[in-house]
Each structure stands twice: as C-alpha cells, then as structure tokens.
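Quick board copy: two proteins, each given as sequence then tokens.
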Amino acid sequence: MLINQTQQKLQTLGLSGMARAFEQLFQRPESQNISFEDCVGLLADAEVCDRDNRRIARFLKSAKLRHGRATLADIDYQPSRKLNQPLIMSLSDCGWIDRRQNLILTGATGTGKSWMACAFGLQACRNGFSVYYTTATQLYEDLAHAQADGSLPKLRRLLIKTRLLILDDLGIGGVDTALGPVLLDIIDQQTLQGALLITSQYPTSKWYDLFNDPTVADAILDRIVHRSHSLQLQGESMRKLKANEL
C-alpha cells in the first residue's frame, strides 16, 4: 500500500519517469540488495531520461520534418555520391548549431538533399535543439499570408526562436521584392541565436539571382554563406534507384 501511495505522490509531483522506475524497482527481487544511495540514483536517472525523451518528442512534433525517420546512421555512402563522410561525422554532434554556423546542401533533384536535411534535423532534436522545417516556397507563402492577416509578428517569433531553421529547396521561384526585407529581418535575428540548414539545386554562386533587390540579396547571403559548411550531393537520383529496387 505504501508503494502505491508513493507512486501516486510522484505522479502528482510530475515525476512520471521516477514513478515508473519506482514500480519496476520493487518488482525486481534483487532490488532488496540495492543501497539507498544507488536506489535514489537509479530513480533520478530514470526521471532525467524520461524528461529527455519527452522533450525530444516535443521537438520532433514541432519540427514537422518531411522525412521523420531519416537518420544520419542510414546515409548511403556509395562512391558515386562522393559524400564527405568525415565532415558529416564531425557535424553529427550539432556543435555547429551552438556555434551559430550554417549548413548548405546542394545537388541535383533526387540526390537526397531533403532527406539528409531531415536527418540532421532529427539529430538536432536528439541533441536538445528546437527545429523547424519548411520549404522555401511554403515559407514565402506563409510570410505573404501573415503580412495580409496581421499574424506576421507571431510567425516571426516562431522562426526567430528556433535553434535550427531548415529551409528546403531554395531557388524554386524567386523572392518577392515585398518579402525580401521581412526575410532578411528573420534571418538576421534567427542567426544571432541559432543556425540555418538550406538545401538547393543551385550552387551558392547562383543564389544572388534569386532576389529582386540586390541590397537585400547581399545582406542575406552575407549572413548565410560566409559562415557555413557545405556538402554537395552527387550521383544518380536516389528516387530512381529506390524505384528500381522495388
């Protein structure tokens, strides 16, 4: 009875991980031989692990990753892709996000840019960073709608506070002149506390032409390109290869 009461108190205090571990601990015969210090340590570890898992789950839900199951461990390093594996491994600790650096993935359609971006996004969530995924086209539409209905401040706050903002398929359609200053402001503020991950079919040397306002183009590219890591994806279309395997 005392065990049940203790479990209920732990649940009331919001210590659900500790409550489950407490129940499991008393179901194990060997628990009688565990010292008080070790028992407290096990319960504390269980609570920390439970909170970490719940935080990761929240981050993943908010991230809205297009490929939610993509992981860096599943990257295909076949020679034709010419991937820089040492660089990818060095980026897997997500220290570049803490250092407010950016990651640029370029390559032809189908080479796996979006998938790899989501794999880095998942890794960032696991490392305790908030993530938000959107395509460039969707972001432009969201910004235009937000300007029209007055919700731009709310959307701006969401994007700015995100530690890793993933902008997929930059270059599909140009940036409207009216949106340029808004996009610049968001990128300027977001990169003060986080990082950008951008994918594009076009090399960075072609990005300038995407903006109708050269002043805005200079300012945005200066904030993105000059402190970024770059990975170029090559080889055959991964979509075609997977389709041929079916």
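And the next:
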Amino acid sequence: MPVLSYQLYSSRNFNDVQQTCAMLAALGYEAVEAYGGLLNDPEALVQAVTSSGLALPSTHVNLTDLEADPDRFIHLAGRLGIGTLYVPHIAADQRPTGGDGWRAFGARLDRAGAPLRKAGLGFGWHNHDFEFVAEDDGTIPMQAILEGGPDLEWEADIAWIVRGGGDPFDWLARYADRITAAHVKDIAPSGEKLDEDGWSDPGTGTMDWAALYEALRGTRAKVLVMEHDNPSDDERFAKAGVALHATQEG
C-alpha cells in the first residue's frame, strides 16, 4: 500500500511546520513532503518531522540549487531520510519551446539527477499543467521531457494533468514504470471555490478518485501526496485527504 503523505506547501499560510506536522500525525498521516523553502532550515524540519513520528520520503527541490551544489542535497537526504527528490517547476520565462527544446530540458534534468542516483537516491520531475499543452510543432512537453531524460522518475500531479487538457488514465498507463509518486488533489466544479483557486478538497470535486486510485495501483507509485495549492482551511483539507485515502485503500 502506498504511503499517505502531505505536501507541506499546502499549509504554508497557516501554522509553522512543527504545528503542521503535529496536526498531520494526529489525523493519521504517515509522511510529509517538503518544498524548497523548508530545506533552508533542515534542523527545524528534522525536529518537526521526527517529534511527530512522521517520515519524509520525498521532497521538492529547485533545479538551479541542485545543479549548483548536489552534495548539499545528498547530505540533506541522509539527514532527513529522503529517498526521492523531484524538481517541481520551471518559470514561464525559462521554459524551452518545441520538441528539441523540451527534450534538451529533460536531458538537463537527467544530468542534474546523476549525482543523486549515484548516491542511491531517486530523482525526477513533478508536473503542472503546461507540460500537457501542445507546442506549435505538436510536441507535448511532458512526453518530450521523459524522452530527453530516460532515467527520470515522474511524480504525477493528476489534477494538473486534467487542467492541462490531458487524459490522466492514458498518461498513467503509458508511463506506469516511470511514476514513483503522485499528488492527490481535486478540482472544484466550474465557477466554484474561486477563493481557493478552483481547487476542492480531495474526494469532493470532479475527479474520479476511485478509478484513479485503481489506475495508480498499476504504476510504481509508492507515495501518494495530498495537496491543495490554496486551501482556506488546511486542517479541513487534511482531514478530507485522510478520509479519501481510507476509503480507497482501507
């Protein structure tokens, strides 16, 4: 059964990481996923995670930071117990264009991850929506990234695939052997939850999570990460994530 985790970015506007981890442990989470800013104070993160009895199997990491000092992240992974690191984003003004550009970007990611893999860690890409929007030459960036970086793992953010116009079931089936984690988030019906950027608590929106959990069982995903990019109440969202996971994996 995949580990139930929580992307700490979801709670960035609420309590500090110590209080957030305590809340998550009380609700039944097994693990958390860090993001780049939290890695700047690893001791606080270690204290929050260990005192709550949680694990930290995965994290997000900035690509240029990783390229500049891979040894720093290898050390952090050992200190924090991280098994896999994912680059989560590239700013719009830095994105390549066309098939060759995106394949070259995949190759760049692959090179950045080489020292991590040599150290026994996993490394890959976490998607948003732009990777599923066709380029002028017909290229789908997500496909080109994985082609250019054949050793890359993929943390599939299912709801972002949908927002990008992709069919999540097709992507999960085609790249089952590359998907080692997934983000579980939900999309509100059109016109609803606008104060939360159109996201909904897991299991309360438009995503067919019963079918998606079944599809994820056919992948290598060993961590399922609950995430909401802009919840108005992070505890409410966290509880919904536990409830959805219990329903599908209980």
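Board note added afterward: The mean pLDDT is 97.
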